[in-house]
Amino acid sequence: MTPSSVSISELADVRTRHPEAIAEAAARRARRPLVDANQRLMIVAADHPARGALGVGGDELAMANRADLLERLVLALSRPGVDGVLATADILEDLLLLGALEHKVVLGSMNRGGLAGASFELDDRFTGHRAEDIERMRFDAGKLLLRIDYDDPGSLHTLYSAARAVDEMAARRLPVFVEPFMSRRVEGKVANDLSGPAVARSVAIASGLGGTSAYTWLKLPVTEDPDDMAWVCETSTLPVVLLGGEVHGDQEGTYEKWRKALSLPTVRGLVVGRSLLYPAGGDVGAAVDTAVGLL
Hints:
The protein is α/β, with parallel strands linked by helices. The protein has helices spanning about 10-15, 20-30, 65-80, 90-100, 130-135, 155-170, 195-205, 230, 250-260, 275, 285-295, and strands at about 40-45, 85, 105-110, 140-150, 175-185, 190-195, 215-220, 240-245, 265-270. Strands 1-2-3-4-5-7-8-9 form an eight-stranded parallel beta barrel, surrounded by four helices. α2 (about 20-30) packs across α4. The longest helix is centred in the middle third of the chain and has 18 residues, at about 155-170. The chain is globular. The termini are far apart.
């Protein structure tokens, strides 16, 4: 069985009759370096569903149709300049069987215990990929989310688990992308503080996790005031990728913020999900091509 022999409609049958096909596809996948000569990365993110975050815009269940999501991902990964994907095990294994991960950078999503809207959202235990899973599946890196609320004791558990994950990835010489936020609950919902001082503080905390930062990257939002990004990124020498988040309203303005931040010395690329996979105009290929053009 070759990766191209499986279609989306056949995935359930393959999973039912030949679950070993996933490991076989992982073993033969053609890999590439994390970064190429231009030291830039364009990663498509699809790790939202496993946190129960299925909404895009006004549609609370936009990402609930797995076949539709996979079609969008396969299209995005086929576009020139797209380096790879960030997702949880279920989605990455579907993409493996579809043959969509050949010569791509694959990032496994690690902590998904902090479900969106849950009372334990900030006690974000590691229920996704472990370092040993990423190594076994021959994936290229991991990603963890680090939301810190000084008023929520669950953040301490997340911090400790994140530090140990950094250690376990570094022991295997596997990069780990840390996505830090200073967070707080506003009317019962977790909100991330995107002010310059808050993002700088999150950078400082994330950079110091674990026994070594040699394999740590940062995945950062663009600050509320885009002009703050220059001094915020001076908080650490670690390489940075920008997260996209969901784009509301002024799409061109968002692109301009990304473009400006991408010119900073430590910024190495973009990791963008819903705004590319479910763009306002509906054209996934055009949205992806626009983002690639910013690099």
